[in-house]
Amino acid sequence: MFHFELRQFPHVARAFNLSEQELEARLVRPWLAGQPVQYDDRRWSPDRARLTIYEAPQLRTDQLGLGRGWAEVTRSGTNVTEQLLVRARANERSAAGELRDEVLRRARAGALTLDEVTALAPGREAAEQVVLELLREGRLTVSGRR
To answer: Do 75 and 95 fall into the same domain?
Structure first.
Protein backbone atom coordinates (compact mmCIF):
# COMPACT_ATOMS: atom_id res chain seq x y z
CA MET A 1 0.00 0.00 0.00
CA PHE A 2 1.04 3.58 -0.59
CA HIS A 3 0.63 6.61 1.63
CA PHE A 4 1.49 10.22 0.81
CA GLU A 5 2.02 13.55 2.45
CA LEU A 6 1.74 16.96 0.81
CA ARG A 7 3.39 19.79 2.70
CA GLN A 8 3.28 23.50 1.95
CA PHE A 9 3.88 25.61 5.01
CA PRO A 10 1.78 25.89 7.11
CA HIS A 11 -0.47 23.22 5.56
CA VAL A 12 -0.10 19.44 5.56
CA ALA A 13 -2.34 16.81 3.97
CA ARG A 14 -1.96 13.05 4.13
CA ALA A 15 -3.67 10.12 2.46
CA PHE A 16 -3.37 6.48 3.38
CA ASN A 17 -3.96 3.04 1.89
CA LEU A 18 -3.82 3.80 -1.81
CA SER A 19 -3.00 1.30 -4.53
CA GLU A 20 -0.21 2.17 -6.93
CA GLN A 21 -2.79 2.81 -9.67
CA GLU A 22 -4.78 5.20 -7.46
CA LEU A 23 -1.62 7.01 -6.41
CA GLU A 24 -0.44 7.37 -9.99
CA ALA A 25 -3.77 8.61 -11.33
CA ARG A 26 -4.60 10.94 -8.44
CA LEU A 27 -1.22 12.36 -7.68
CA VAL A 28 1.87 11.26 -9.61
CA ARG A 29 0.76 11.96 -13.20
CA PRO A 30 -0.54 15.48 -12.52
CA TRP A 31 2.47 16.19 -10.26
CA LEU A 32 4.96 15.25 -12.99
CA ALA A 33 3.00 17.29 -15.52
CA GLY A 34 3.46 20.33 -13.27
CA GLN A 35 -0.26 20.60 -12.64
CA PRO A 36 -1.65 21.48 -9.22
CA VAL A 37 -3.09 18.51 -7.34
CA GLN A 38 -6.50 18.97 -5.75
CA TYR A 39 -6.64 17.31 -2.34
CA ASP A 40 -8.27 18.15 1.00
CA ASP A 41 -10.01 21.21 -0.45
CA ARG A 42 -6.63 22.69 -1.40
CA ARG A 43 -4.59 22.94 -4.57
CA TRP A 44 -1.03 21.72 -4.07
CA SER A 45 1.37 23.11 -6.63
CA PRO A 46 4.46 20.99 -7.46
CA ASP A 47 6.64 24.09 -7.57
CA ARG A 48 5.70 25.12 -4.01
CA ALA A 49 4.64 21.98 -2.14
CA ARG A 50 6.73 19.01 -1.09
CA LEU A 51 5.56 15.48 -1.81
CA THR A 52 6.55 12.42 0.21
CA ILE A 53 5.38 8.91 -0.66
CA TYR A 54 5.82 5.85 1.54
CA GLU A 55 5.21 2.21 0.81
CA ALA A 56 4.04 0.49 3.97
CA PRO A 57 1.49 -2.10 5.09
CA GLN A 58 -2.16 -1.16 4.94
CA LEU A 59 -3.22 0.75 8.02
CA ARG A 60 -6.27 -0.27 10.00
CA THR A 61 -8.75 2.35 11.18
CA ASP A 62 -7.44 2.15 14.75
CA GLN A 63 -3.91 2.89 13.49
CA LEU A 64 -5.12 6.08 11.80
CA GLY A 65 -6.94 7.55 14.79
CA LEU A 66 -5.71 10.62 16.66
CA GLY A 67 -3.22 11.51 13.93
CA ARG A 68 -1.10 8.41 14.47
CA GLY A 69 -1.19 7.25 10.83
CA TRP A 70 1.83 9.12 9.49
CA ALA A 71 4.02 8.09 12.42
CA GLU A 72 3.03 4.46 11.81
CA VAL A 73 3.79 4.78 8.08
CA THR A 74 7.23 6.29 8.63
CA ARG A 75 8.06 3.68 11.27
CA SER A 76 6.96 0.62 9.30
CA GLY A 77 7.43 1.77 5.70
CA THR A 78 9.97 2.92 3.15
CA ASN A 79 10.19 6.34 1.52
CA VAL A 80 9.74 5.56 -2.19
CA THR A 81 9.08 9.08 -3.47
CA GLU A 82 12.10 9.31 -5.74
CA GLN A 83 11.81 5.75 -7.09
CA LEU A 84 8.12 6.20 -7.99
CA LEU A 85 8.69 9.57 -9.67
CA VAL A 86 11.68 8.25 -11.66
CA ARG A 87 9.71 5.17 -12.76
CA ALA A 88 6.68 7.29 -13.71
CA ARG A 89 8.88 9.63 -15.79
CA ALA A 90 10.42 6.63 -17.56
CA ASN A 91 6.95 5.19 -18.27
CA GLU A 92 5.84 8.55 -19.67
CA ARG A 93 8.86 8.70 -21.98
CA SER A 94 8.25 5.12 -23.10
CA ALA A 95 4.57 5.81 -23.78
CA ALA A 96 5.44 9.03 -25.63
CA GLY A 97 7.98 7.14 -27.74
CA GLU A 98 5.40 4.51 -28.63
CA LEU A 99 2.90 7.23 -29.53
CA ARG A 100 5.49 8.99 -31.73
CA ASP A 101 6.24 5.72 -33.54
CA GLU A 102 2.56 4.98 -34.11
CA VAL A 103 1.84 8.52 -35.38
CA LEU A 104 4.75 8.31 -37.82
CA ARG A 105 3.68 4.85 -38.99
CA ARG A 106 0.11 6.01 -39.64
CA ALA A 107 1.23 9.29 -41.25
CA ARG A 108 3.39 7.32 -43.72
CA ALA A 109 0.31 5.29 -44.63
CA GLY A 110 -1.76 8.42 -45.31
CA ALA A 111 -3.07 11.70 -43.96
CA LEU A 112 -3.78 11.83 -40.26
CA THR A 113 -5.90 14.38 -38.37
CA LEU A 114 -5.19 15.72 -34.92
CA ASP A 115 -8.40 14.05 -33.73
CA GLU A 116 -7.05 10.70 -34.93
CA VAL A 117 -3.78 11.31 -33.08
CA THR A 118 -5.75 12.30 -29.97
CA ALA A 119 -7.63 8.99 -30.14
CA LEU A 120 -4.24 7.22 -29.92
CA ALA A 121 -2.92 9.37 -27.07
CA PRO A 122 -3.78 9.41 -23.36
CA GLY A 123 -5.13 12.94 -23.87
CA ARG A 124 -5.24 15.88 -26.24
CA GLU A 125 -2.26 17.58 -24.57
CA ALA A 126 -0.05 14.53 -25.16
CA ALA A 127 -1.23 14.31 -28.78
CA GLU A 128 -0.50 17.98 -29.42
CA GLN A 129 2.94 17.69 -27.84
CA VAL A 130 3.91 14.71 -30.01
CA VAL A 131 2.63 16.38 -33.18
CA LEU A 132 4.49 19.61 -32.40
CA GLU A 133 7.73 17.73 -31.69
CA LEU A 134 7.45 15.80 -34.95
CA LEU A 135 6.69 19.00 -36.88
CA ARG A 136 9.74 20.75 -35.35
CA GLU A 137 11.94 17.78 -36.25
CA GLY A 138 10.63 17.88 -39.82
CA ARG A 139 9.38 14.29 -39.55
CA LEU A 140 5.76 15.35 -40.04
CA THR A 141 4.19 17.98 -42.28
CA VAL A 142 0.89 19.80 -42.26
CA SER A 143 -1.43 19.51 -45.20
CA GLY A 144 -4.62 21.46 -45.85
CA ARG A 145 -6.31 18.51 -47.49
CA ARG A 146 -7.51 15.18 -46.24
So the answer is: no
Model pLDDT, residue 146 = 53
Instruction: Say if 63 falls within a structural domain.
Output: yes
**Quick one: 7 and 58 in the same domain?**
yes
Rounded to whole angstroms, how far apart are CA atoms 92 and 84? 12
Q: Residues 97, 72: one domain?
A: no
Q: What is the mean pLDDT of the chain?
A: 86
Task: Convert the pLDDT of each residue in 50-79 to its tens digit.
Answer: 999 999 999 998 888 777 899 999 999 999
Query: What's the predicted TM-score (pTM) here?
Result: 0.66
Helix orientation angle between 81-109 and 124-136, rounded to the nearest 10 degrees: 60
- 112 Cβ contact list (under 8 Å, min separation 6): 103, 106
Can you tell me the distance from the alpha carbon of 84 to that of 20, in angstroms, rounded to the nearest whole number? 9
Q: What's the structural domain count of the chain?
A: 2
Q: How far apart are CA 7 and CA 33, in angstroms?
A: 18
Tell me how far apart the alpha carbons of residues 2 and 26 are, in angstroms, rounded to a whole number.
12
For the segment 7-44, what is each residue's pLDDT rounded down to a tens digit? 999 999 999 999 988 998 888 888 887 889 988 889 99
